[in-house]
Amino acid sequence: MAKEKKDGIMETVKTVFWALLIAGIFRSVFFQPFWIPTGSMKDTLLIGDFLFVNKMAYGYSQYSCPFAMCPISGRILGSEPERGDVVVFRHPTLNTDYVKRLIGKPGDKIQVQDGVLSINGEEATQVPDGTFVETYRSQGRFGTFPLCSNGPVGQGGECIKEKYVETLPNGVSHSILNVGDGRLDSTNVFTVPEGHYFFMGDNRDNSTDSRVSQRANGVGFVSEEYLLGRVDRVIFSASGKRLLYFWTWRGDRFFKKIE
Asked: Which InterPro entries match (predicted)?
């Protein structure tokens, strides 16, 4: 009887081991789950969006595995990201995964003047697209409150941001939000080094991105080895703090394609 019990425990341990191994391989090679914790990519991505990162899109580096344990030097099986892609990458110094839009590729000159993005001297056109309206309240597990262009706003009130469709020089169009005149609405010219990329959030006045250097707690230029993959589609979305709060599910965002 004791032997049967021991054999049963060993079978359970082996089952758990193989299940974890298979899950780890799937996560490392194909798709990595990612939950949006902040509002830096509104209204393309909302707090509480759940998605899978396509890790096959750009190839693999040591950071493709959990805890950066892939035995890879440099990057293998890689393909070049496209300007306008929504990308998840590992922050070079904070060991945290970020999601932003890829704006600058190696050799590009990037500048923002009065809120208008310029790439290699060519402005990315902005066309007004109404407003983005949300309720001013605590959002997500971090309990953050949104920035509003019509502030100050009382809790439960309408929080409004100006909305534009921005078109990059390669023809990719996407939504961006504007709260007002901020310190990052006008910058110096950034020249993207070889093997690095420049990222910005679509919620331009509420995004920690490449406009601020890593030394100043920003993102700065991101080396290609830190790219984890491309975001193609939202799988699921909930506006509450817990997935089980079914009354907070956003049915209109299930399997929503990312532009």
From this structure: LexA/Signal_pep-like_sf, Pept_S26A_signal_pept_1, Pept_S26A_signal_pept_1_CS, Pept_S26A_signal_pept_1_Lys-AS, Peptidase_S26
Rounded distance between C-alpha atoms, residue 242 and residue 145, angstroms: 17
Q: Does an H or E element contain 117, and which?
A: strand 116-119
Q: Is 100 a catalytic residue?
A: yes
Catalytic residue from among 40, 64, 207, 237: 40
- Integer-rounded Cα Rg, in Å, for the chain is 21
**Tokens standing for 77?**
């099986």
Q: Note the pLDDT tens digit of each residue in 91-139.
A: 989 989 999 999 999 999 999 999 999 999 999 999 999 999 999 999 9
Question: pLDDT digits over 150-204, tens only?
Answer: 988 999 999 999 999 999 999 999 999 999 998 899 999 999 999 999 999 999 9
In the three-class reduction of DSSP (H, G, I as helix; E, B as strand; rest coil), residue 220 is classed as: coil
Domain containing 51 equals 2-257
End-to-end CA distance of the chain: 60
Q: Which residue in the list 42, 100, 161, 163 is annotated as catalytic?
A: 100
* Kind plus residue range of the DSSP H or E element containing 11: helix 2-29
pTM above threshold 0.90: no
Residue closest to 251 by CA, chosen among 48, 34, 3, 10: 48
Confidence band, pLDDT 50/70/90 cuts, at residue 27: very low
Nearest to 178 by CA among 118, 121, 253, 126: 126
Instruction: Give me 58's structure tokens.
Output: 């750009």
Q: What is the CATH number of the domain that holds 219?
A: 2.10.109.10
- Active-site residue, 175 included: no
Beta partners for residue 236, in sequence order: 50
